[in-house]
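Lab notebook, bench 4. We co-purified these components, and the gel suggests they stay together. Before we commit to crystallization screens, I want a quick structural picture of the whole thing.
Request: model the full complex, all chains together.
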Amino acid sequence: MTTALELVRRARRRLAAVVALSALLWGVSAALAVVAAAALVRLVVPLPAAVYAALWPLAGLAALASAGVVVWRGRGVRSLERVALWIEERQPELRFALVTAIDPRVAPAHSHAALHAEAQRADVSGLVGRATRRALGRALGAVAAFVVVVSVLQPQALLRAAGEELVRRTVPDAEAALANRLVHLTARVVPPSYSRLPEAELENPDGISALIGSRITFAGSGPADGVVAVLGGDTLAAASDGRSRWGVEVTMPDAPTVVAFHDREYRRLVVLEPRADSVPVVRLRLPARDTTYQTVPRGRLVVEAELADDIGLDYGVVEYMVTKGGQESFETKLSYGPRVAFGNARTAVLREAVDLDTMGLGPGTVLHIRVVAFDGNDVTGPGKGVSETRTLRIAEPEDSVSINPAPPLPIDSMWMSQRRLNMKTDTLIRNKPRLDVKTFVNTSSAYGNAQDEIRQRAIAVIRLLEDDGVGGSFETQVSRLLREAVDLMYEARVLLGIAKPDSAMPYMVRVLEILDEIRLANRYYLRGVVLPEVVNVERVRLTGEDPAGKEVREPRRVLEDVRLRLAARIERAAALARSDPQAAADSLVYVRVAALVEAPGVAEALEGAIEQLRRGVAADSALARVRRALEPAPVRLRGPVEWGGIP
Amino acid sequence: MSRFVFATAEYASGDWESAPALPANLIDSVARYTSIEVAPAGVSVRLDSDELFNYPFVWLTGHLPVRFTEAERRNLKRYVERGGFMMVDDHNHDITGVFHQTATEEIERLFGKLEQVPNDHEIYRCFFTFENGPPHTNHELNGWGDDLLHPHLYAIFVGPSTGDRRRDRIGLLYSNKDYSSEWNFHPETKRTMQQDPTKFGVNLIVYALTR
Amino acid sequence: MRSRAEVRESGVSGMGGGARLGARLRVAGEWALRALVLALLVWSLALALSWGGKGAVERASTETLSEALVRWTTVAGPERVHVAFDHAPSLVERDWLAALVGAGTQVSWSGPSLLPTALSIEPRADPAGGAEVSVAAPAGAVVVLRDTVGELDSARVEAASGVRAYIPRPKVTLDAAVGGVVARAALADSLKLGRLLVLGAAGWETKFVIAALEERGWRVDAEVRVSPQTTVRQGSVTAIDTSRYSAVLVLDTTAAAHADRIARYVRSGGGLVLWSPAVDAPRLAALAPGRRRGEVMEDDGRPPSDSAPREALSIAPITGLVPDAVVLERRGEHVTLAARRLGAGRVVETGYVNTWRWRMAGGEDAPEQHRTWLAGLVSSVAYAGRVGLAVPPTNPAPLATLIDRLGPAVVAEEVEAGGGLDRAVLARWLFASLCLALLAEWASRRTRGAR
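Here is the predicted assembly.
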């Protein structure tokens, strides 16, 4: 027979288990209640980050508190007497028999049999069972209710975000390990020092325009490990700056390009648009125009120029080039005025006066004047800008108006022959140390014979010129000059015959001058006007005998239209935009870089389309406009339809 | 109509007219060896005028510095890009001389670096065959000017490249060899010559007319 | 239990004077509502009988057509329908109406604002691609050309010539909108182009014609005569036939030696472009639209303008036109472009003898314009094989096919009236009115305590 004490002990154990289980269930309910409340509030207003971070701790606290309350309220199960009293309360007919019977000091069983018998008749198990069902039922019901509410509200994202926020706030490195380190990108642009332009800080740039050679430092939050930048063919690893930020430095190249940042599965593209430092622009104001002087000018000549540069002028200088000579022999002297520094000014005026008397000008001289300016570009080299050139000529006497009939043909050929002979003789003189005596003598003698042959031709021309047609003769200007030349040729011939080409040379030079004088004096030559010689084409047609080779013509390549190539790339990106706008935007970034070089107007329009795609807005109309602008326009056709193709 | 007219370029800064007999000489040679319809006289045309574009072959030479005006530069660039052929010849035959220094500076400013023409380029085979590239001139052979034998000509190539410079099209041809002196004589003088030195000039004109 | 009358009496007699009047009015109102319900029922019955009878026409407009089609097909099954179009129906709607006709419904339609429009698009024989588009529409109508990207061009139709254009980059389909009609066409073929053969003497015109065509993308064989012994060749000119060449271009009489082969080539379907100086050779003149040419009228050296570039070119006018020659262009009284058919082939003759000046001396876009014009000359005669393409559904002549499927339009007023309102709308109003009346009558009775 179960004693009263055993009954109460059994009841105590069961009640303790119920309390424990109830506490657990009420704890879960409280936690679910907190989550449900947060989810409900989030539906109406966004929750601050602090609330996210507090959600898990709050739910835990609520669970603990709720369980604690249940345990506190059920603390009585620790005491047998309290349990017995609890039973007595629910079974008053026991009239405290049970609570008395469980204390052997008060009512030992051998002396209180009736009492124990009375106590043993208590329906303890039934009571405990009903209490258990009640307690657990309520707790389970609460749990079930909150589970239903929570499953309706779907707080999984809330819980995940709360967890991430909690971890981010509590675990120092966890934030960086989780987040996209490319989201908040900054760029510091430092232009080359020569430009003296200020630095710039950019937040989240999609494109950076800066001078070639500018240093650009990109930075973002988080550790540097795993962040790389790909620029052209180079991969640059990010470096840490010790403050939980990564950084990578690039230099602005000389052609547009894309720098692609990679962080695990994240990617970000930034377009680098180089700005070239333009060369200085120089406009020569004085002298105002080219001039031909009939006499040698004297005095001071003012040279004045306006200079401008997009970044800054370093210095400028006036360049003077004086050329004198004639026929085949010219000499040029190049000189500069004083260097004028401009201290990086964007505009300047350079003015100086030059003393023409010091230039060595004379008849036939040509003076070229221009102004040269340099900027201070020490990255790609100083930009050099030049002005137009002013040409100042000083006329030679024959540069005016004397027009005479064309010379007889033999003058030209004599001149050619004499010129060749002079060249050969000059070569012979220079080669004399290398030649043996016999060769030298024979060659000089042969040249003497050639000189004589030219002399005979000249005599024949003199006879022709001086023949008056009636058996008499008269001297002409040309025949007089030719006679002088014939005499000199004789002298030269004699000297060549005795192997003294060096002595013959001055005579030969003078002969050539005379022949040239005869030839040039008969050029139809006014400055800038040459009356052409007319060839009797039909007389000489196909009289040449030399056979020609047979060569095959190489075909030309088809001209590729770069704009059409761009249009095709944009069309492909537009098709991709429907399924993957971000990939389409990335693709268009590369097209934009190509367009910066090939079609700059299109690059600007593409920028707008890329921005729309990044925001998730359809960019169809923007892309359509760009494609249309790149394609050739339709051409109206006229005429009969069946011959329709001709515009 | 389509007949060939030999044009000499007039430019503001130099002695563009320094080879006055050259046009007649080359016209004569073209008539001698080909059936190309050719005008009997050459013309001179200003580099800064619209008239330049009526002459798709133009010869430019001189001894003096070459300093183009803006209008001349603009015209020259457009001329070559549209298919014109310009022959530039240093009448000084001197790579230290002002014509060479200034003309190459102007050309490279407009078109970029002058490139060496391979000596088996089709310009050396398009009519007469010159196995060793550009023929030497008397000036070179006699050591005048810079006393150098220049083995190559230089060019600005135009149009899409074939990948082989021997077949790429020349728009501007530059010479240090002084063909202006070599060919600056009356055409009748050819009758007394054993070798006609103007044959390479025929190649230049045939190349311009057929490529 | 008391009777209704007793209730009414008690209700009424139990009230004061004003209240009695109000109650009587209320009862009268209820009787009025009952009468209204009865009238509506009678009207519905009458309508049902009349709609089921002969002569009743269901109507729809462009906006309501798609909904009406569903109803006519699934619920109503009307005998006669009339559709008033203010713009052409889609292919689906048109075919659906045609199917209703097949199912026994008489379909009539009106559309006074629909303009007859037809669109054709043909591939151009040009390596740069493109298509030639022709739109037929009434004179004065505005034609808007559109493709999948957006609007391409718009033009007003002048006289009877329609609108024709060359579209350099055609998309899959092309639309021509004329008022409320949108015609759609697609390129049904692509072309297999052969090579070109150019025959001429060395000169600027030969040089720049070859250059322009090669830059355009044509593969060119050429024979350029430099001297009687020397011809610069490109490609190997063995046979002149349509398997190799899409067109032959003859610039002068140097091609006379090939005249017989060219004649056979053209007669078998090949294309020939002839410069008028070539007719100085009699055997070439026999092929040309103009058997002779006038003296060359030299240009004055001024640069060709963008707007009328060929006005500044030299011409050798085309004269001695054969009876079947078609004049394509004139300068004043001089014929500068003419064409003819020769056997299965086509010949175009141009009197412009120095088009190279257009390229060299013209405006900013002159080189491209020159290329396009020359390519146009070639494409107008070129022989090219065709390869069929898979095309999406098109509607190149919307009005014509509508008439073809549904018969000609009728004047809307001639259609027998079957009711001022759409049946469905009327039925809904009737039902709603009935319900409201019944509800109001019941509510009034119940709220005053009557049953």
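The two ends of chain A are 121 Å apart (CA to CA). Worth comparing against the SEC data before the next meeting. Chain A is about 45% helix and 20% strand.
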